[in-house]
Amino acid sequence: MRNRAALSRAGVAPDRSPSEAADDPRIHVSLQGLRSLEPAARAISFLPKQPARSALQGRHRSRIRGRGLDFEELRDYLPGDDVRAIDWKVTARAGSPYVRVYTEERDRPTLIVVDQRMSMFYGTVHNTKAVTAAECAAIVAHRVAKQGDRVGGVVFGDSDMDELRPGRGRAAVTRFLTSLETANHGLTADAPKVTPMPFNDVLAAVARLATRDHLVILISDFDACDDETERRLGAIALNNDVVLGLVGDPSADVVPETGEVTASDGQKQTLLDFRAEEVRAGLAQVTGSRRDQVAKWQTRMRLSVLSLTTAEDTLAQVVRLLGGRVR
């Protein structure tokens, strides 16, 4: 939904110049701003052992599995070896005990998928959804790189999608943050109307990049999802750990009772009069059904869900959701 009134409340007023809007960190991120989140990202972790308060723990949530093990060799059993490592089939054939030796993988690839479509260019309190999503993605990228794992991602807008294969070190993080900045600055209140990127096309790209044993983090408002989305997401979750970052705005919970808003889906536009009860009921149904859909995915596929809001500072809420503390 393109909401000029809501954007105005978030800081993008119709009479503001493009340069003024571009300099507002609530409207558009900067590479410098995304880099500045690195030190505070140490307060969280994406390793298997999570704090008790973390949203990655719990009855209906998946546990992060961590890095895998690579088979190295078979060798004679030595005193002190773990008996659970004995290969009984080889032992039976050889007539003496043999153990299987494994080494931990050097790192684990992480794929951060970030929605920067026009539906994300909306916010009524602190940030636009696009800024909250980009900042959350940057925090995750910094922390994953600090853990020694590879960082990659898929950054997509209405018409473009940038696929970044997971890489090591600061260079990989910089490539990802630069892609985020570029996509985010493509969002403007007067952007040309285009058909939004289908979310299912994005999941197809994710499936190509994350074949197995990846940590996949999808940050979006999950606009325009359907039954096919659930099927594709389920296929990805079979061989990977999947975390959903659901970005919302307070206006989804409290629909105003007065005022008018011009809304667009990228092709058609209409005037929404909030004084009409059917308009308020329709908006409440759309936002409520989206949350219900994500909750259904969480239960059926045992996914972890981080519920993010544009009403708060991004770093503070990400740290809180993952059981850490902001210093």
Tell me what the structure shows:
With 327 residues, the protein is an alpha/beta fold. The protein has ten helices and ten strands. The protein has helices spanning 4-10, 18-22, 31-35, 88-94, 129-146, 169-185, 199-209, 227-239, 277-301, 314-321; strands at 69-76, 98-104, 109-115, 150-156, 161-167, 215-220, 241-248, 260-264, 269-273, 304-309. The strands form three sheets. Strands 5-4-3-6-7-10 form a six-stranded mixed beta sheet, with helices on both faces. Helix 7 (199-209) runs parallel beside helix 8. The two termini are 36 Å apart. The model is unreliable at 1-16 (pLDDT under 50).
In short:
This protein has 327 residues and is an alpha/beta fold. Helices cover 35% and strands 20% of the residues.
Weakly predicted, low-confidence segments: 1-16
Rounded average pLDDT:
81
- Backbone structural class: alpha/beta
Could you give a short account of the major beta sheet?
6 strands, mixed
Order of helices and strands: HHHEHEEHEEHHEHEEEHEH
Strand ordering within the main sheet = 5-4-3-6-7-10
Radius of gyration, CA atoms, in whole angstroms: 23 Å
Q: What is the β-strand count?
A: 10
Kindly report the oligomeric state of this protein.
single chain
Summarize the amount of helix as a percent range.
25-40%
Strand content: 15-25%
**Termini Cα gap:** 36 Å
**Spatial shape:** elongated
- Count of helices? 10
